[in-house]
Fold this sequence. Notes:
By secondary structure, the chain is an alpha+beta fold. It has helices spanning 14-23, 34-42, 44-47, 91-104, 121-125, and strands at 4-8, 51-56, 59-71, 74-82, 111-117, 130-140, 143-151. The protein has a 7-stranded mixed β-sheet with strand order 1-2-3-4-5-7-6, sandwiched between helices. The chain is globular, with a radius of gyration of 15 Å.
Amino acid sequence: MTDIHPRPYEPRDLAACLAIFDSNVPIWFAPDERPDFCRFLAQPEARGGPYLVLVQGAEVLACGGLDLGAAPGRAGLTWGMVARAHHGRGLGTRLTEARIALARATPGITELALETSQHTRGFYERFGFALQSVTPDGFGPGLDRCDMVLSLAQGSSGCL
């Protein structure tokens, strides 16, 4: 795994990121979210912060970013995903750790928020994200929306 590293998203990554999205439908993403993701990737000014890809050689294995305009003092995790063929290899952990590190390195950011489904809620709880609310079918039929927050305050482990 030492040959896998994060780098900033580039327009040439569009097709690979859309393929990653498609590989995660319908369990982790609803099909009708694809146009939103496509617009997000195509409009750098709409991203609100850095977007990363995890690469091995020329292959894009995962992608995800930060929204630094979520609210004062708060950043949000955006559009994080790993190609389905690469699930279980620790790439989601590496991507999440890279995004948490970016948030911690951003002056004035004290909280990191995310909206995820019931399928990945437990994954983010391992990093100290705390559940704030659940909206049944919030992302679509069978995909509940789980709003979660991680405190980045000095000395905080993020655990309750």
